[in-house]
Amino acid sequence: MLRDFEKLQTFMIVAQEKSISKASMKVGISQPAVTQHIKIIESYFNTKMIYRKKNGVLLTKDGESLFWILVKLNKTLKDYQKEMVMMIKRCETIKIACSYTVGKFILPQCFTEVKSNIYPNIEHYVATSVEAIHDLQNKKCEIAIVESPFFKENIIYREWLEDELVLVCNKPLERIVKGEDLYSYNWVGLNPQTQTARIIKKHLDKLSIKSDKLKISLEFDKLSEIKDFLISQVEGKDIYVGFLPYLHIQNELKNRMLYTRSVRGLKLRRKMFLAFPKHKKNDSLIKNISHHIIFNTAISMY
């Protein structure tokens, strides 16, 4: 057991996520398999490690002790990770296809460490989720980071981060916006064929807000174009609104160039997934890079 890092890692992720289901998505195995790993650990140590509750899991005292031992062990392994990966003796460039949000606002935060500690020859380029999966299938990239999984038999998905889309306006509005108020605004929207537009529509549908009834003044293909337009209208007379990822507008909010408002009952979040070909699941380099990105990247939300 003490050499079975796979099961110990599963326990560590369960402890971090406080959820069997979330750990299952991150580790990439079924929930019954996660539960089985925990049972094997509990059997080995002859003690209960977690309590299952309706809203997640809670560590026992022994579970807490094991978790902190594993945190220290994980740090030690991480210190030697670069040396172990360099033994693989590979020199090809690993390409990662990702969305604009990931490529501009998230990956730069972790790439320095990945290149320093894991593998130096990594590049990323911006693509839509559909394009990224297409490139993955056609061997134009080794890893894809997408906002929604397009389930294919030959692709493995790992749940990664979750970001939030917020209502953004070029002028201050009331602090809390009611659902029915959305029909009165001038909207700057995304092309409805984009994946993010579909996610927005799905969340609005849950509030019985009909997105096709909103007053769409302009439509763009990219989120960055919506942001640029809203900034260009700061001095204008008309009020425009649109949904943007919070990550895109942090500086503009600080400088009061744009404003955000809460919509009552609406939490517009989208999950991101890391994907790689099934035939690469035992590729040590891809596994190390993917693992580092998944478990060592965080985003700041407000």
Please provide a brief summary of the model.
The protein is an alpha/beta fold.
Overall mean confidence score, pLDDT: 87
* Share of helix, binned: 40-55%
**Helix count, DSSP H or I runs of 4 or more residues:** 10
Instruction: Tell me what portion of residues adopts beta-strand conformation.
Output: 15-25%
Order of helices and strands: HHHEEHEHEHEEEEHEHEHEEH
From the N-terminal CA to the C-terminal CA, the straight-line distance is: 41 Å
Mind telling me the CATH class of one domain? Alpha Beta
Query: Low-confidence spans: pLDDT under 50, at least 5 residues?
Result: none
In CATH, the architecture of one domain is 3-Layer(aba) Sandwich
β-strand number: 12
Oligomer: single chain
GO molecular function: DNA-binding transcription factor activity; transcription cis-regulatory region binding
Organism: Helicobacter apodemus
Protein name: LysR family transcriptional regulator
Keywords: DNA-binding, Transcription, Transcription regulation
What does this structure look like?
The chain has 302 residues and is of the alpha/beta class. Among the domains are: 5-87, Orthogonal Bundle (Arc Repressor Mutant, subunit A); 163-269, D-Maltodextrin-Binding Protein, domain 2. It has 10 helices and 12 strands. It has helices at 5-17, 20-27, 31-45, 61-86, 100-117, 129-137, 195-206, 223-232, 250-254, 284-295; strands at residues 50-53, 56-59, 94-98, 122-126, 143-146, 155-169, 176-177, 186-190, 215-220, 240-245, 259-263, 268-277. Strands 3, 4, 5, 6, 7, 8, 9, 10, 11 and 12 form a 10-stranded mixed sheet that branches. The protein has a two-stranded antiparallel sheet with strand order 1-2. Helix 1 packs across helix 3. The longest helix has 26 residues, at 61-86. The two termini are 41 Å apart. The relative contact order is 0.14. The mean pLDDT is 87.
